[in-house]
Design a protein that fits this description.
Elements lengths: L1 H48 L26 E3 L26 E4 L23 H9 L3 H4 L11 E4 L9 E6 L1 E5 L27 E4 L2 E4 L3 E3 L11 E4 L2 H10 L5
Parallel strand pairs: 3-8
Antiparallel strand pairs: 1-2, 2-5, 3-4, 5-9, 6-7
Length: 258
């Protein structure tokens, strides 16, 4: 009988592991599908409004903040699902949830331009990608290609994507992203009063930087993100980023530019 129970226990434990892995794989697939829908919704919003939406905050009930656009100077927040007319699970704060019941994060490039459409190094105004007029000025700037870049100093004009959180030389994928959407995956802790240390994506396993705490949620405080190979032990974030060239192309198709 003991041998039979041992065999049954081994078989059941194996079945449990298989079911757990299948459930996690399903969630990963769902998150990737949802993020692609968010990406398309962002492009569609830009085609309708001539700009990208501002991030939602923990108290904006799922709408961009400020609601309807305006003086947007918040880099890191949440997907404004209500403004994007996206449907899915939401929490009590109106934030769209990933399959692990954590709100999808959304960051916007802090790219500011002056009256001539030239990049401003001072963080003192509205972000160009969230303002229709400023985005038109950026597009019409003959130096746009050189202006539109990630700056490695204290102030970064766009968002950078790398293959690891260190973002060592040669690991950069994109330095031109106007916006990033990500799921923190299963290892992120929501409602954590002590936000885990981390830099890119608020990567809690990296232990290489700091995050800041916004009400009951943890948000990144850098403009560098990692798109590393999924690994349950040390990296599980799921990320997409917008291309400025696809964005401009979609705006042209919608007669929002030039």
């Amino acid at each position: 009988m003991a041998v039979v129970m041992l065999i049954m226990g081994t078989l059941l434990s194996g079945l449990l592991v298989a079911l757990t892995q299948t459930s996690n794989n399903t969630r990963i697939t769902t998150a990737k599908t949802q993020i692609l829908k968010i990406e398309e919704a962002l492009y569609a919003f830009a085609q309708a409004h001539g700009r990208l939406p501002c991030p939602a905050t923990f108290d904006s009930n799922g709408y961009e903040s400020p609601v309807g656009g305006g003086d947007c100077n918040l880099e890191h927040g949440f997907v404004p699902a209500a403004s994007l007319s996206l449907y899915g699970r939401i929490n009590d704060d109106g934030l769209m949830l990933d399959p692990w019941s954590n709100p999808y994060r959304y960051s916007i490039a802090p790219y500011e331009v002056d009256a001539s459409g030239n990049w401003e190094a001072e963080d003192d105004g509205e972000y160009a990608f969230t303002d229709k007029i400023l985005l038109q000025e950026l597009f019409n700037n003959p130096n746009m290609n050189s202006e539109l870049r990630f700056n490695s100093g204290d102030y970064s004009s766009t968002l950078r994507i790398c293959t690891s959180y260190q973002c060592s030389p040669g690991e950069s994928i994109s330095t031109l992203a106007p916006a990033v959407v990500l799921s923190m995956g299963p290892n992120w802790t929501e409602l954590n009063s002590d936000c885990p240390a981390g830099t890119v994506n608020s990567d809690e396993e990296a232990n290489a930087g700091t995050n800041w705490h916004n009400s009951e949620y943890c948000l990144t405080d850098t403009n560098t993100f990692a798109n590393a190979e999924y690994n349950e032990e040390n990296f599980d974030d799921i990320i997409i980023w917008l291309s400025p060239y696809i964005l401009f192309s979609r705006l042209i198709d919608a007669s929002q530019l030039p």
